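User: I'm curious whether this sequence folds into something compact or stays loose and floppy. Could you predict its structure so I can see for myself?
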Amino acid sequence: MGKNMFLLTLVLAGIVAAGQAQGNSNHLSGQTSLYLKLAVSQPVDWYPWGAGAFQRAKQLNRPILLDVGAVWCPWCTLMDRETYTNASTADYINQHFVAVKVDFDSAPELVAQLQRAQAVLNLPAGLPLTSFITPDGKLYFGGGYLPSERKGDKPAFREAAEEALTRYADQGKMEKESFQLEIPK
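Assistant: Here's the prediction. I'll summarize afterward.
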């Protein structure tokens, strides 16, 4: 097992280095989490969890798209590959949301809070965890794995994102159907 983990680490480090060499970068450069390092080269303008992301969302009056995942999660890897590396989807996300990425293993208290919130709102709460949050910290919509195209009962990412924007525009309804999170100061 030790040798396999070492080889996996070398392969993933090579992927990270290749993405950075191509000149693609977002606000995740400098993060220590391998899951976040793997997203540095994605075309989504990812932020790490923190006050800066919420300030940016307030400044732009946009909801936050929060992706929680882990390197060991096959569905997280699949969603990253299918959805977040798609240039058209990334452009859509960058135009309508402030995107935040969180490593499941690095933020257990935050993840527990998010999973509890999604369960209270009767939303899927597994991995990956996809949440839509207002700039003032109200989780109001979300899901789990959202493929690039509809698969059975799983809506496509774009369908879910459009629904999130519609709900964000209906502030009155959102007040009744949201969960206040503890946000970073």
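Summary: Residues 80 and 138 are 24 Å apart (CA to CA). The radius of gyration is 16 Å.
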